[in-house]
Amino acid sequence: MGMQALLIEDDETIAEPLIEGLRNYGLSVTWVATGTEGLSGPFGDSDPFGDVVLLDLGLPDMDGIDVCRGIRQVSDVPVIILTARGAESDKVLGLELGADDYLAKPFSLRELVARIRAVSRRTGTTPGTTAGAAPARGYSVSGPPGPAAAAEALPAAGDVPGTLVVDRRTRQVWVGRSQVALTPKEFELLALLCEDPGAVCSRRRILEHVWDPYYEGATKTLDVHVATLRRKLGHPGWIQTLRGVGFRLAVQAPPPGPTGRSRGHAGAFEGASP
User: Fold this and answer.
1) Residue 247 and residue 193 in contact, taking contact as beta carbons nearer than 8 Å
2) 126-142 residue pLDDT tens
3) pLDDT tens digits, 217-258
4) How far are the Cα atoms of 29, 74, 199, 209, 225 from residue 36, in angstroms, in the given order?
5) Cβ–Cβ contacts within 10 Å for residue 169, how many?
6) Which of 37, 188, 235, 255 has CA atoms 20 to 30 A from the CA of 160?
């Protein structure tokens, strides 16, 4: 795989065989035993946490949740939590703070490698991307969400934030003139909904695309990410819920034309840069 992994794990009996196994799969692993060492960015200023972080929660100097929060404040590097804590509340908290995946101990090396590959594909960190390849398109959704989002308790018209822009090339998001900081999973979720604004995307498709084709974890994870994404976008009406089905990105209905018929929706959703 040719990737640089940062392993934050205090138990030497777990870390050593894990390092050896991952190296057999082509990963270069740097191991630290404390949260403080992990947050120091062992790989240097340009890429302090490498290509992926494997994070234990039970660290001797601080809770791994705080390490995850600290990493996410300064970097979008993929973070996979590795821990003996199997409670759903721990999983949800870790994911809400920006972790990309959660693997409960004990786990198999093959499963861990598969999850590393999956988060790397989603975040664009997998080595081997063809140089000079055409960048993925960006999306601009004319906003704000219109009457169809009324069930989401929209604020008054004056509170509406404006146009939502999702740039896949730079993995950046704007609402109006304000840039929005998203975790890799939040970005992929939003970008997926942007591919067909207004259309319903099933929960299963989102989980398979944003998490893993064989994802078997708690579906509450998706609801947590949607709630966080709504909050960050500053307007709950951007993402609508269809109970029992999935989610869709709301778009503003076009105003009626001179003859009373609706105008075309051309230009409401197109490749864009802010």
Assistant:
1) yes
2) 443 322 222 334 455 54
3) 656 788 888 988 888 888 788 888 888 889 988 865 444 444
4) 18, 15, 45, 33, 27
5) 12
6) 188
